[in-house]
Amino acid sequence: MQLGMIGLGRMGFNMARRLIVGGHMVIGYDRSAEQIDALRAERGGGASSVEDLVRQLAPPRILWLMIPAGPPTSQQIAALAGLLEPGDIVIDGGNSNYHDSQNNAKLLAERGIHFLDIGVSGGIWGFTEGFCLMAGGDPAVFATVEPILKTLAPESGYRLVGPNGAGHFSKMVHNGIEYGMMQAYAEGFEILRAKEEFDYDLHGLAELWQHGSVVRSWLLDLAADAFAKDAELESIRDYVQDSGEGRWTVEESIDLAVPAPVITLALQLRFLSRQPASFGAKVVAALRNEFGGHAVLKADTGTPATEIKTTG
Question: At 239, is the pLDDT very low, low, confident or very high (cuts 50, 70, 90)?
């Protein structure tokens, strides 16, 4: 099949490569001319603009967006609404909020243009291992692009999960689960590292657990790889960003009155990792000192202060 790929970043480029290897014709556009040239080197096509991309595609056109969620995606889809024709298909494979996807589907439907929101998981390993695809939209539209999805995914790795919005909602929860899993691994390995008398080889343990253990997973594979490269992770700062899906998952759990303490705490700990110093911790230390005379650490030296006895 022929399709246009808008966004040739780490995910979009590897998806385009996998499709080309699978026999599809991919024409790509990216703000970086270097990425377009790189796709041409992979036997793909290139476009100088989105307008040029649309002109190069034969109707009914299929355009797949792999660009940042939020305004960039919504603005691009609004622009495509004025360029495409009835029967064309737009796919958003980014990590968009499912509300945005529902709105984008409605906007395009008013022009007779079809829309699929497809959550994509697989990261930079997707080119070799395949991408897991969670699609939301009309079954007939899904069937039209199914040859593309079959090429991108490993066996049994793609599915229509519901109407428009359902694909990105499931990817949102998927990433929320990922937050909790990564936090559990992080805490476990930190406890092991703190037990200095056993001098654990964390890389060795991670690899051991991959053979028959109930905690084995692809994330544990990646942990083993990280420890193999840098046993103490000295080259990595303890700062963890979040891209939005964890927040949205927690917000949905509140709206639906579904308890999600693990995912919520994992998100909160990411926030904590970004603080150079915790004012909240200072408040707790001050209160302990005030009501119980517990020692505090001086801000300038970090040495314990003299205990202050209180009567409260």
Answer: confident
Q: With bands split at pLDDT 50, 70 and 90, how would you rate the model's confidence at 310?
A: very low
Assign 3-class secondary structure to 190-220.
HHHHHCHHHCCCHHHHHHHHCCCCCCCCHHH
Rounded Cα distance between 118 and 169, Å, is 10
Angle between the N-to-C axes of helices 166-194 and 202-209, in degrees from 0 to 180, rounded to the nearest 10: 130
Q: Two tokens at 171?
A: 């990817």
Separation CA 197–CA 207 (nearest Å): 21
Is pLDDT above 90 for 279?
no
Residues 12, 66 contacting (CB under 8 angstroms)? yes
| Pairing between β-strand 45-46 and β-strand 25-29 as defined by DSSP bridges | parallel
**Among the listed residues 119, 164, 120, the one whose alpha carbon sits nearest the alpha carbon of residue 141:** 164
pLDDT surpassing 80 at residue 301: no
Find the range with the poorest average confidence among 11-20, 90-99, 193-202, 231-240: 231-240
Q: What is residue 285's predicted lDDT score, i.e. its pLDDT?
A: 83
Residues labelled catalytic = 171, 178
pLDDT, the chain, mean: 92
CA torsion angle 147 151 155 160 (round to 10): -50
Contacts of 214 (CB under 8 A, 6+ apart): none
What is d(CA 32, CA 267) in angstroms, rounded to the nearest whole number? 33
- β partners of residue 114: 89
Question: What does the chain come to in residues?
Answer: 312
CA–CA gap between residue 182 and residue 238 (Å, rounded)? 14
Q: Which of 109, 99, 185, 179 is nearest to 141 (CA)?
A: 109
